[in-house]
Design a protein that fits this description.
This protein has 255 residues and is α/β, with parallel strands linked by helices. The chain is 37% helix and 20% strand.
Length: 255
């Protein structure tokens, strides 16, 4: 049995996680996918191989993901493979997560970053996004086959990536939560479009949205963009989001 734990904002990483599970299952390796927000790190099954996937954000990842990984229990040799999705680059961030897990006694057997459609800046049209996903799925297929055949590799850190990881970690764990960052990224609600359906409340992975007359945001937002991308009425936006993107249907992201 293989258990994949994944965090996904607009759906790219969940799409890859589902594809990985599909390939494993076709090769007679039972595999399931669970979202990080639905399980405590202390409750994961360490008696079977696990996969961990996340979204790259600012060449690092979201504070929630880092906290979830930091709170994982001692691995006692549990095999784990890692993957992340990005619009361009992650500065080998996955190699540093691998080192963190190795220090927790996990046996990291594979790491891989996958280029997926941009979900924040330079969002492409649906046709080009579909082509990019199809190309990535070819690489996902090879990644899984390499794991099955014990041919997979683990990324290694270097001096440049170490400096980048320190800087981006500070930004995503410290500056990310400052009042200035929240002011810049604050979401606006178009009252002429919002019908109070409450879908954004269901979508938010951190229970950061409360529905009153219209949705109200608390102070736990990590800017994963899930609420913006999947709002049925397209009623949410902010000062720097040029175009929204969704990798899955609304029903799929809600499952």
């Amino acid at each position: 049995m293989i258990n994949i734990y994944v965090f996904s904002g607009t759906g790219n990483t969940l799409l890859v996680a589902n594809k990985i599970a599909e390939i494993f299952n076709k090769n007679n390796n039972s595999c399931s996918v669970t979202r990080m927000e639905n399980i405590k790190p202390s409750d994961i099954n360490l008696n079977e191989t696990i996969g961990i996937g996340w979204t790259v954000a600012f060449w690092n990842t979201y504070p929630f993901v880092r906290k979830w990984i930091d709170n994982l229990p001692n691995g006692n040799g549990t095999k784990v493979f890692l993957f992340d999705t990005m619009g361009d680059s992650s500065c080998k961030m996955i190699a540093h997560i691998a080192e963190i897990l190795q220090s927790k006694n996990y046996n990291v057997v594979a790491t891989k970053g996958f280029i997926m459609p941009n979900n924040f800046l330079l969002v492409l049209n649906d046709k080009k996004n579909k082509q990019k996903i199809e190309k990535t799925f070819v690489k996902v297929e090879k990644y899984v086959q390499d794991i099955i055949e014990n041919k997979a590799v683990v990324d290694k850190t270097n001096i440049f990536s170490k400096v980048a990881f320190v800087i981006t970690s500070f930004i995503t764990t410290k500056l990310w939560n400052t009042k200035l960052a929240k002011k810049i990224m604050k979401f606006k609600i178009d009252k002429t479009k919002c019908n109070g359906c409450g879908m954004c409340v269901k979508l938010c992975p951190l229970d950061n949205i409360e529905l009153k007359t219209i949705p109200e945001f608390k102070n736990k937002c990590i800017f994963c963009l899930r609420c913006v991308s999947y709002c049925p009425q397209k009623a949410l936006s902010n000062n720097i989001l040029l175009k929204s993107y969704r990798a899955l249907t609304l029903n799929d992201i809600l499952k």
